[in-house]
Amino acid sequence: MNLYKGTKLESIPGGASGAKLYQVKDYFGEDIIMKVETILSEAETLAREVELIKWLNGKVLVPSVLHFEQVQKLDGNWEAMFVMSKLDGKNLKMWRHEHDKEEVAKLYGSALRTLHLLPFDDCPVKVDLDDRLVEVRQKIDAGTVDTEDFEAQYKGVSLESLWSQLVIKKPIDFDLVIAHGDYCLDNLMAELDEGLKLIFTGFIDLGRGGVQDRYQDIALALRSVRKHLGQ
């Protein structure tokens, strides 16, 4: 990929999926974000993220899609690159240390409500729970599940036991909305206005988003609030 060749790339933290994130200046000196995936399944997730962000643009605050390409290299491996505009401000996980936590929580909830109220009939990105379960099963079989990231109540529980619970408790009815898919504090950006009020500047990391059950977001939001903002 020769786009922005010769431009200095600044690696930035993030990308829980394993994506590499870089900040780079465009030809006009503006900061932009480059996201690179080298695993096929995650490259496909990145392609869905691009499609969803294009659809969301103009409806809610999201980055602008500047460039996307997905190629199979000579060695057979895949690589995908997504270049997007950089949103102003910092993520809410950072703001919790510098701003009133109650205000952070209010903004967090308000942004979720705005997203979930969007009409979704023409949204091109649908998330199938059965497909998600297939992904989980594949990760269990491949031994790539990060058990260190489990909630306290699940630590020490066997993966097969947890898998059985997932299958048994799979819902049959869904309350469909446009969901973020990974609704954690660090995936929402905000900045202070002139009156030092915290204002929302946009959603990021939407690779797991699309039309799906609203509790995908609610469950992660509750976990994030408990962990980072208190009960």
The percent of residues in helical segments reads 25-40%
Largest beta-sheet characterization? 5 strands, antiparallel
User: How many H/I helical runs?
Assistant: 6
The total tally of domains equals 2
Low-confidence stretches: none
| CATH homologous superfamily identity of the largest domain | Aminoglycoside phosphotransferase (APH), C-terminal lobe
* CATH architecture annotation name of the largest domain: Alpha-Beta Complex
Shape: globular
Structural class: alpha+beta
What does the average pLDDT come to? 89
- N-to-C CA distance: 46 Å
Number of strands: 10
Walk across the major sheet and give the strand order: 1-2-3-5-4
CATH fold-type name of the largest domain? Aminoglycoside 3'-phosphotransferase, Chain: A, domain 2
Question: What is the highest CATH level, the class of the largest domain?
Answer: Alpha Beta
Q: Roughly what fraction of the amino acids lie in strands?
A: 15-25%
Rg over alpha carbons: 19 Å
Q: Which key features would you list for this structure?
A:
231 residues; alpha+beta; Phosphorylase Kinase, domain 1; Aminoglycoside 3'-phosphotransferase, Chain: A, domain 2; 2 domains; five-stranded antiparallel β-sheet; three-stranded antiparallel β-sheet; 6 helices; 23% strand
Q: Explain this structure to me?
A:
This protein is α+β, with helices and mostly antiparallel strands. It has two domains: 76 residues, Phosphorylase Kinase, domain 1, CATH 3.30.200; 140 residues, Alpha-Beta Complex (Aminoglycoside 3'-phosphotransferase, Chain: A, domain 2), CATH 3.90.1200.10. It is built from six helices and ten strands; from the N terminus they run E-E-E-H-E-E-E-H-H-H-H-E-E-E-E-H. The strands form three sheets. It has a five-stranded antiparallel sheet with strand order 1-2-3-5-4, covered by helices on one side. A three-stranded antiparallel sheet has the order 6-8-9. It has a two-stranded antiparallel sheet with strand order 7-10. A hairpin with a 5-residue loop joins strand 4 and strand 5. Helix 4 packs antiparallel against helix 5. It is globular and about 50 Å long. The model has no long low-confidence stretch (mean pLDDT 89).
